[in-house]
Amino acid sequence: MSTPADLGVAMSTPAPIVTRPDRGTDDKIFRGVVRAAGFGALVLLFLIGLFLFLRGWPALRLMGWHFFTTSGFRTLGAHPQFGVAAALYGTVVVAAVALVVGVPVALGTAIFLSEYAPVRMRSSLIAVVDLAAAIPSIIYGLWGFFELQPNVTGITTWMSHHLSFIPIFKVVSYPTNASLFIAGLVVGLMIVPIVASISREVFSLAPPGEREAALALGASRWQMIRSVVLPFGRGGVIGAIMLGMGRALEETIAVTIILGGGLIISPHILQHGGSTISQTIAINFFSGGRIGTEALLMCGFVLFVLTLVVNLVASAIVNRSRSGSGIEL
Amino acid sequence: MTVLESPERPEGKAPTQPQPPREPVTPRRLPAPLRPRNFGWADAGLLGACALSSLALVWVVFYQLTLLSGGFGFLLCWYVCFMVFYWAANSKVIERQVATDRMVAVLVLTAAAILVGLVIFIVLWVTFKAIPHIHWGALFTKDQKRLVPSDPHVLSNVGVLHAIVGTLEQVGLAAIIGVPVAIATAVFLNEVGGKGTRMVRTVVTAMSGTPSIVAGVFIYAILIINHVLSFSGFAASLALFIMLLPSVTRTTEEVLRVVPSGLREASLALGAPQWRTVWSVVLPTARSGLTTAIVLGIARIVGETAPLLFTAFGSQVLNLNAFSGAQGALPLVVYHDVQQAQAVFIALAFEAAFVLMWLVLILFIIARILGRTRAKKDRGFALRIFERSLVPTRMASSEPEAESFTSYAEGISLQPGDLH
After folding, report:
1. Residues B221, A55: contact at Cβ < 8 Å?
2. Residue-range domain boundaries for chain A
3. Nearest C-alpha of chain B: how many angstroms from A275?
4. Which residues of A touch B303 (CB under 8 A)?
5. Does B47 have pLDDT greater than 70?
6. How far, in Å, CA of A244 to CA of B392, rounded?
7. CA atoms of B400 and B416, how far apart (whole Å)
8. What number of other Cβ atoms are within 10 A of residue B401's Cβ?
9. pLDDT at B134 > cutoff 60
């Protein structure tokens, strides 16, 4: 028997296997850098809230608690009077109209895409829905101003004539364009893709065994959806709706193009006038002097806290639900 | 045997009483099974009949009997009338449950048709409103310096070059800063983990809901108001970075999660440190998903207007320097020009909107193609990543790992000597 050494093949002893008892320095650096990036996001969010509050604090100190109850934006002159009340009201009204208009369309689209659509068309339709989410909001604003508003004014005028027994549909001063209602319609269209995408994902997670059991028991398709898919998806859908609400609260540009302004609190959503927080900031930022800018920074802080709370609540609701365990917000 | 004898009986059977004659009995049948999901010619005929009759009714009532007007209102009334007729017809002719089922099918189809129709309409509308006014030679090569509204040939002297350059620079800078940070955050959340993971994940979720105008106003409040920066493209990039970070982080985390853990474990077993594992195994495996996530994140921030309002501020002339001086951007041109009264400004706004929208569309199509070519074997994977990038959710289903293992593994050839 000849060993490799006899044959003249040079052999060295194999290198000893090095096991790492703990992480090497390079790994420590890596983990440190990556952890810094992660906590950097935390610091950034905290900084945003902090700076908005700090820079807006002089305005809040000037008005005190009346900041939340006053409307109007008279910041120049001897007795400044400004407050976030009307803008906050407008923001909430626009978001409410957007939800009322957008959520049914979104849920219908989601049910269609997950249950009714032919399989071959499904991915193309999903692509169109995602495209709708990607279209810039300013394009929606343009369309809403030039195309939707002239066509919907007829309907809103009709509503103000014939449905005026409902107090919010009464109109005291015409015309009915540039109203919170029309802004709500456009924002509603913008939140449909968001709510529809999440809802569709949630509905597609419904267990096929339960679906087939319902169908086998003789249920029609709608009965199957109502008894299996919708109850399963309830948590995810609520989370989706809250995400859509967060999006509607923060929408700036489409609302700015449509609304004309007018910081009043009025229940007549069909008539012109009204503003939202983001729109007020966008329009008035440089026109109010130093106090004006500070007041708007404080308004921005209010909006920031509002959307933060909505997003966190949405995340909490979804994570606790049955469908939410498969989809995390 | 006589005629009077009883018919033959088997032997040994006692004669029974003669039985009274019975009525002929038809065997009992269950009613014909109702198949509610069938939609045959009769049902299609019912649908058509309801549509026509509701159209006729609304035609008469709408224009003749009431003072309503407008095609939109007519369509709305026709739709409502059709639904009522359809429900009544189905519940009378067939059955109430089938009627409800078909009503819901019509409603759901309407909702999807509204969304898809409106989106396609918006895209075509912007295109067809912009194209008549575009002078193709000037659109990409001129800015708004020579804008004289009284000049009849003004549209051939103005373009959106300044806006395109501004958008590209601002988005480019935001991506250069933002993509590494986002990938690092996603690596932290998925690979490194540890104590702060849930908090950072919540923070990223919260940050994805930050209003875009708040991002712009924050950069103004922290950097511009004390003159650390002036109105510049770079300030706008910082604001866009705040919008880019959460979306790319979440999508990248999804993509990294789908990478099979077997690959990581193999790499670690071969002695590679964790950073090497991430750099050489995990990230290249997820390359197509990463690219898709990045392209989609960029597509989202290209259209953002509000963060640019107080950071880049907008300009009418070309400004190539992103670090000093106000810079224009496509959304800003649209926003500022659409508020002017003169037709030339409106035309210019539509031109910029046209360029912006098709830029977003092209990025979108690129992302879709990228997502598709890699995951030919796993279509579901590409679709999931693509959807979730545009919408802030994550899915933690365990199936993708099994499906995509083969497609990943076939693309990787790892030699033992690679990692040392």
Report:
1. yes
2. 86-286+300-325
3. 15
4. 134-139
5. yes
6. 11
7. 27
8. 15
9. yes
Rg (CA), chain A: 28
- Please tell me the distance from the alpha carbon of residue B215 to that of residue B398, in angstroms, as a whole number: 36
CA nearest B333 in A: which residue? Answer: A138
Class of domain A86-286+300-325: mainly alpha
Both structure tokens of B384: 């999931």
Distance (Å, rounded) from C-alpha A171 to C-alpha A271? Answer: 6
Kindly report each contact of residues B197-203 with a partner whose C-beta sits within 8 Å and lies 24 or more positions away, as own/partner.
Answer: B197/A38, B199/A42, B200/A38, B200/A39, B200/A41, B200/A42, B202/A312, B202/A315, B203/A41, B203/A42, B203/A45
Q: Which helix (H) or strand (E) holds A73?
A: strand A73-74
B353 touches chain A (CB under 8 A): yes
Q: Chain-wide mean pLDDT for chain A?
A: 85
Interior angle at CA B257, CA B252 and CA B262, nearest 5: 135
Residue from the list B70, B221, B274 with its beta carbon closest to the beta carbon of A51: B221
| Beta carbons of B303 and A134 less than 8 Å apart | yes
Nearest CB partner across the interface for B36, out of A220, A250, A256: A220
How many CB atoms sit inside 10 A of residue A292's CB? Answer: 20
A137 pLDDT exceeds 90? Answer: yes
- Which residue bears the tokens 């959806």? A225
CA-CA-CA-CA torsion sign (A41, A44, A50, A56)? negative
ipTM surpassing 0.90, yes or no? no
Question: How many H-runs (helices) and E-runs (strands) does chain B carry?
Answer: 17, 1
pLDDT of residue A325: 54
Q: Is A114 exposed, middle or buried (0-12, 13-18, 19+ CB in 10 A)?
A: buried
Under the banding of pLDDT at 50, 70 and 90, the label for residue B379 is very low
Q: What is the DSSP string of B175-244?
A: HHHHHHHHHHHHHIIIII--TTHHHHHHHHHHHHT--HHHHHHHHIIIIITTTSS-S-HHHHHHHHHHHH
Q: Which of B125, B303, B397 is facing A137, going by the closest CB pair? A: B303
Nearest one of A233, A230, A228 to A210, comparing CA atoms: A228
Distance CA(B20)–CA(A164), nearest Å, equals 78
Domains of chain B, CATH where assigned: 43-132 (no CATH), 154-405 (1.10.3720.10)
At residue B13, the pLDDT reads 54
d(CA A61, CA A68) in angstroms, rounded, equals 12
CA atoms within 13 A on the CB side of B130: 26
Q: How many residues are present in chain A?
A: 329
Using alpha carbons, select from A100, A185, A102 the residue that is nearest to residue A141: A185
